[in-house]
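Researcher: Next entry in the queue.
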Amino acid sequence: MTLRTGHIGLNVTDLDRSLAFYRDVLGFALVGEGKEEGRRYAFLGDGERLVLTLWQQAQGAYDGARAGLHHLAFEADSVERVREYEAALRAHGADFAHEGVVAHHEGAASGGIFFHDPDGTRLEISVSDGVGGAPAPGDASAPTCGFF
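Model: Structure for this entry, 148 residues:
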């Protein structure tokens, strides 16, 4: 058996703010939560399984220069759905790394949007096909996740 990702746990600085972002903007369902002071958390799912746990434990914003998470990528079922997420994120005021949908590398059919959550954690929503013709960020000869 090959291992696969179960769920992701993220430390956040403000659980209420992060919960509103992941639930209300990205559409995850609240599966359970802990409200005890000093032990606040939220379990978020996709209707079938646990996907993400938010832990109110961080003292500062995400730091991409430290060891640990580089970025968190979610997959959508179509490029149209990626664009719907982009519109919702823009309406929410999310910070984007690139303008619009970008290809994973020059000429790739895969790609998506690259943005930050309220604590600055780098996030991606992408598709494996349907992005053909979109520009690629960075060096055209190297694959990129959009945050390279």
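Model: The radius of gyration is 16 Å.
Researcher: Noted, moving on.
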